[in-house]
Amino acid sequence: MPKKKYTDPCEERYHRNFPAFPGIAKLAELLRRGHATNGYLDVILYEIRKHAEEYFDELIAEIRNDDDPWVSSLLLAELAGARLPAAEGFLIENLQSHDLRRRSWAIFGLRDLNTKSARQALWAARSYSFDTPEATEEFRRCIDGAMGWDT
């Protein structure tokens, strides 16, 4: 008897609702409304990452304009995970964000790009100062840990 192919129910639900990719704005709206939890959230984030290059400008605009820090950091995490060379400048810009989550995703995105200019930007970012000495030190530790410079 042939094995039955397993299909994730969350993935089935997503593709039933969206036979074609609906765009970044639609998926960000689902995130904002709280309609994406658990496995369904994972599928949505996977789809955003998978289409990040194709919808690059829309993704950047959504991250810049989103008032919800949770949603914008999720979107930035997917952009960082997509490892797009075109995102380097935007990731560098986010190293100076007031939101710790955005700074962290920018660090990991630049580390994963692993270009000379990304490494130089991370090294230079170690000199940034934030609201408190503790925040500045935590930022430096995050960079050093991500890059393996803390050993």
Q: Report the average pLDDT across residues.
A: 95
Give the beta-strand count.
0
Distance between the termini: 54 Å
Q: What number of structural domains do the residues give?
A: 2
Q: What is the N-to-C order of secondary-structure elements (H for helix, E for strand)?
A: HHHHHHHHH
**What low-confidence regions span 5 or more consecutive residues with pLDDT below 50?**
none
Q: What would you call the shape?
A: elongated
> What's the Cα radius of gyration?
17 Å
Structural class: mainly alpha
Strand content: under 5%
For the biggest sheet, the summary is:
none
Give the % helix.
55-70%
Described by its quaternary structure, the protein is single chain
Structural overview:
The protein folds into 2 domains: 7-82, no CATH class; 85-151, Alpha Horseshoe (Leucine-rich Repeat Variant). The protein has helices at 9-17, 24-33, 38-50, 56-65, 69-82, 88-94, 100-113, 116-125, 133-147. The longest helix has 15 residues, at 133-147. It is mainly alpha-helical and 151 residues long. The chain is built from 9 helices and no strands. Helix 1 (9-17) crosses helix 3, helix 3 (38-50) packs across helix 5 (69-82) and helix 5 packs parallel to helix 7 (100-113).
